[in-house]
Give the backbone structure.
Amino acid sequence: MSIVAVVGLQWGDEGKGKITDVLASGSDLVVRFQGGANAGHTLVVGDKIIRSHLIPSGILYPKTISVIGPGCVFDPEIFEKELNTLKDLKVKTGKILISNRAHVVFPYHKYFDGIKEEYLGKNAIGTTKMGIGPCYSDKVNRIGITIGDIVSGTDLKPLLQNSLDEKNFMIKSRYNKKQINIKDMLNWIDKYRELIRKFTGNAYELVNDYASRGKKILFEGAQGTFLDLDWGTYPFVTSSNTVAGNIYIGGGLSPKYKVNVLGIVKAYSTRVGNGPFPGELNDEISELIRDKGKEFGATTGRPRRCGWINLDLLKFAVLMNGVTSIALTKLDVLSCLDKIGVITEPKKGINKKVPNTFLETNDMQIEYLNGWDISIDNIRTFKDLPKNSREYIKYIEKVLGVPASIISLGAQRKKYIMRKEIW
Ligand code: IMP
């Protein structure tokens, strides 16, 4: 199969960046199909730590084209910053193509995200404040501004006026904050227009042309299944569809192409931001996992909430994404724990078909598997892993009904076991 989608099966931060980076080396195209600079990938290349939020992971390979697809929201400020960082680090990069259909994140989207969250107080979503929700809202409200609008020379004043009148009304009447100035926004566009123009194109043509020629295409998901707008823990979700089906819409791939779906699963669960988190731990084990796993948000620096792996939710995620195999990440973090918890199906009597009942925590069942007491990050073959860690992997495979084709054992590029070729 020459097309692979990499998607998160939990609440994001599963380690997709590392796995995408591993697979990107053999890819002709790496395509982001949703989200924007709310994502945070940490890539460790030699002694360099590279944090990217918007630019796809393919950027580190000179022969790969990185595509920011039509379903993404594009933040020019972050884009420019990431380009400059890559330049400063002197890493060789590939080409970038931004879809002319992607919507633009303006400073007022971030401003709005911030004041709305502040206004909501204890009911806040806990967003990354990167303007994602407000930008997608404008898209759905048909008052958004696309990359195409910016580079084509369209008179943006009436579009902006329309959008800002509504926002300024809300800012004054509801939030009582400073108004957004249209002139500032027009100047802001002028500042970024030429930069954006250099990279803009028709992404769907490139994607489908490469697909028709059997080139290797990697769709790089952001966030995770339980942050999906339709399938996540609504309303505590992001504002796009994170599941694999969105590669056909947000990525512009024709549905005639079949894909392999690699689901990324962290060996335990984490969640950043508010919302339901069945199995959340608030004890010394969660602290240990947070410290060892460096579980702090790559975009916001917030400490992540930690808990055991939830196989019941993961079964749903495997179905909803059409997962063909999983990559199990950060297994090394669990080394040296006596017992490792695994959340399984709720007790009988729970009707799992009713939305949200699978998020009830009262009826959760936890089984405990034996841990292993040696560090495993330098192991490179499955058979060399300690028996109990192999048992842990096999248990997960059995419940989920899909093989674990990659086991990731640390942040560095080389720290993984490839059990089955993905392509
Ligand atoms: P937004 O995407 O900034 O609107 O935030 C909505 C929710 O998604 C919040 O709970 C965020 O913490 C969460 N979120 C957004 N992006 C990521 C990510 O890349 N990893 C983990 N959580 C994320």
About this structure: The CA atoms of residues 76 and 191 lie 10 Å apart. The domain at 3-93+203-418 is CATH 3.90.170.10 (Adenylosuccinate Synthetase; Chain A, domain 3). The pocket of inosinic acid is lined by residues 11-13, 38-40, 125-128, 130, 132-133, 222-223, 227, 236, 238-239, 272-273 (CB under 6 Å).
